[in-house]
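forwarding from the other thread:

> can someone predict this with zinc ion?

sure thing
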Amino acid sequence: MLTPSIYIQGKGAIYYLGQKAFPLGDKAFVVGGTTALQVAGEHVKKSLVSNGIEVVGWNDKVKECTHAAINRLAEEGKHTKAHFVVGVGGGRAIDTAKAAAWKLKVPVISVGTQCASNADGSAESVVYTEDHKFLEVLALPRNPVMVIEDTDVIAKAPPKYLVWGMGDALACKFEGEAYAKTRMMKQDLEIPPAAALALGDACFRSLMEHGQKAITDLKNGNHSVDVDDVIEAVKLASAMAFENTGCALAHALHNGLTRTGQIKGEHGEIVAYCTIVQMVYEKRPADEIRGVVAWCEKIGLPTKLKMLGEPSKAALRMASDYAADKDANSRNMPGKMKPSEILEAIDKVERGI
Ligand SMILES: [Zn+2]
């Protein structure tokens, strides 16, 4: 079971950063996006410095997780002689920080500043091209040692980030279950722990129960318990569920669609739509699928392709071919996937369930 050693969530949680990071050394390299460090940078610095940790490097220019950005940061980090890296921001900044720390052979701490991504605790970095086309997933040998989710900071980010985060987190139960089924059939060494599946299930229940209220509350400037519950479902439960199971059709199709260059929308929006496609592909009960579609509509997640730029028939064929065969997650669905069946599932989603 891969997990970070420490997960701290709550109002003002950044306060604990320096205190808990102290055993890692006394030289920190802080990296993040410009907005993230404008919002949380001072708190991060204060927490480190007040615990005797010197900030030896500071890069607030991380925009996209590309190989070039990872190499640039690793090079910069080498000169600072930092004992550990602190990645601050959303998925792109944190994935870049994790990969740079791996190149530097030092531990990394994640400080999330918004909830669009569940990358903070995982031992993976998703690498994109400069124009944000999916390239590959780097499997890192270790998780970040610590994850800090300051809910004061996250609740002040635009509510759309939480919507996107929920869209991505929606997939973890269904992909995890498909993955487990596949591994059980193959009886290979990757049969996931029951704990990971339980987390996927807990995440799903929390999203269904608290998701809509959390968004309404955030839009009204009300930082309620539901907001915190959803942050935990995305940042902890979904992250540890997917980390210890695997992605399947939903992410494979997402990756295929983004490669066509004809799909618009954020990662979580595309993944939410692709999760509905996976549910149809798996022939799950219509009531279960309708429940998820209704929830997506209430939350503001896309349930039809026209909300995602309406890719052409040829693009859908290309994406389905890729998802069935070429994507690394293709092997995680039970049985050999057929592009024609993926296209049929898409068609059914478009026509209505
Ligand atoms: Zn994802």
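The first strand starts at residue 6 and ends at 10. thats all i got for now
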